[in-house]
Specification:
With 296 residues, this protein is mainly β. The protein has one helix and 26 strands. Strand 1, helix 1 and strand 2 (39-43) form a beta-alpha-beta unit. The radius of gyration is 19 Å and the shape is globular.
């Protein structure tokens, strides 16, 4: 028995911008500027492109065409991509790409600080991502409804971690927030911080994933720091079928303890079939019912 891959996207189909013949570093950015809302940009494996910097105001998919060789098409940045003020975006999707920063103390994939933005979906599918200060940092009045990392490898992420919403809550308006977070069938290695939010979320689901050298010693895996009324995940946090190794001990001091949570007093946890290594430990604020010390 055998299975075949889903047919590659038709480069001549409506809504597809095929730039495989253009290996200029600016080719992706130029294509995004020219694209209509919802277009798909088809890139060539093994080619390095600049991550766009012009503030995004439309739905877009950037994906690699099928091809031979293991090297992915790469999006590279020494800064970050932004989102335009007032943008109402259905989806932003990265498929089968490497997305790489120059410096994990300064670069991001997205770092918008603006007003009245709503993004229904941010998806990383079959991607390799790393050398960023953070993947997604949002400020102002920016909402992401669904943030998904699936079948991906994430490495070398600095102090803004996998997600940071970085504007204090307000009584007059909903500030930066991410509603639903899904990490599925992915590997996370050498990550200084996990999920940090100053506003509530609706759900966090982690399934079939591996975490090694995960968060700095003493850091929090889930840090909801918005204060009373703004520091919970309303539908709970689910972690299933996943493995956790020790903290990212960059000083090599054998300090492996992490803190599980900050806030989240009213958040339910569903933990099923998870494992941790013998040198994993909590130094405080443990995640309820988290399995410690299974693999040695």
């Amino acid at each position: 028995n055998y299975t075949t891959r889903v047919a590659d996207i038709d480069p001549n189909a409506p809504g597809v911008i095929d730039i495989r013949a253009n290996e200029s570093p600016s080719a992706v950015a130029d294509a995004v500027l020219a694209a209509a809302d919802g277009d798909i940009i088809l890139v060539k494996r093994g080619v390095t492109y600049d991550l766009p910097q012009e503030a995004l105001d439309k739905s877009i998919t950037i994906r690699a065409a099928y091809g031979f060789g293991e090297q992915k098409a790469k999006l590279y940045t020494t800064g970050n991509w932004n989102i335009a003020e007032g943008a109402q975006i259905d989806h932003i999707r990265f498929v089968d790409l490497e997305i790489r920063g120059a410096d994990y103390s300064g670069d991001y994939v997205f770092n918008p600080n603006t007003k009245n933005v709503n993004v229904k979906e941010l998806l990383f599918e079959n991607c390799q991502m790393g050398t960023f200060r953070g993947i997604l940092r949002i400020r102002g009045t920016v909402t992401f409804e669904n943030y998904i990392i699936r079948n991906s490898l994430v490495d070398s992420i600095g102090g803004y971690g996998l997600l940071t919403t970085d504007t204090n809550p307000s009584d007059s308006e909903l500030t930066a927030n991410v509603k639903n977070i899904l990490f599925e069938s992915s590997t996370f290695n050498k990550i200084q911080a996990g999920i940090t939010s100053r506003n509530n979320s609706t759900s966090i689901i982690i399934d079939a994933s591996t975490f090694a050298n995960f968060i700095s010693p003493g850091g929090q895996m889930f840090r909801y720091r918005g204060g009373d009324g703004n520091n919970n995940v309303s539908n709970g946090i689910s972690i299933t079928n996943s493995i956790f190794g020790h903290a990212w001990d960059e000083s090599e001091s054998e300090n492996y303890g992490v803190r599980g949570i900050d806030g989240l007093a009213s958040t339910s946890f569903n933990l099923v079939n998870n494992y941790s290594t013998a040198n994993f430990s909590f130094s405080g604020n443990e995640i309820p019912d988290f399995t410690v010390w299974i693999y040695s």
